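G., the chain you wanted modeled:
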Amino acid sequence: MMRRSGLVRWLLLLLGALIFVGASVSLRQQKRINASPEIQVALPLFVQVFMAGGDRFLAANLGAIRALITETVKMHPDEYKILGKVQVDASWLNPAHEDNYYIASAILPWSGQLDSAQTVLRRASLARPFDYQPAFYYAFNLVHFKGDVTGAAEWLRSAAAKLPDDDERLTMENLAARWLDKADDLGLAITVVESMAKQAKRKDFRNYLLQRAQRLRDLLALRQAAEAFRQQTGQPAQTLEQLVSAGLMTKIPVDPFGIGYALDAGGVPIFSSAKKR
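Predicted structure as tokens:
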């Protein structure tokens, strides 16, 4: 009986060893990502809160700490997705968390996780009415990653409204107006700049914005004339003067800022400064 029991134990040990060896070989053959220990998994929100003893703000702190100590230099794209999820969760638990939105704006947009970064920044902007930076970063991402200058200008104006210093606020509003020079929808851009002028408290800044609105109207008129020229001749204009010669413009508008207008490679009127870039 004892010998049979010993034999059974020996067979079980042998079977266990074979299973271990087989599993080890199988795992070595699997393609694995080199995940950072701190960012291997994004836990469900209720689990995060439970592990923090029911304290959602502590859970947000723990999530932000995970993001802060994670080594991101050699991270795999899938790990950036997890990092984005961790930070979005932290922003839901505590949208006003300062470190969380700093880290999100510095890492996530540049790593293919723009939507996650924008979610964190949008929540931070709403939760921190005294802080201009979340709205500023949100606006920058719209311009840099999406080319949405109209939406970016609106967010930049929101950021400017939170600045306590009048000169800094005017500087940021000016930047918003300058971004609108690149808008695809010039009609909308004109409306926004004119609205900014109506809300401006300083007369000199109001006049400045009205000049910017006028040059946008002049650019719109040039583009409409260029499109009419294309339809009439079947080809794009080569020079702005052709629009005058064709009777589509009485004269080439004068840019109040001295930059002037030009044609891009497709015959579409633009500001001369855009052509130089």
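Residues 203-233 form the longest helix (31 residues).

Shout if anything looks off.
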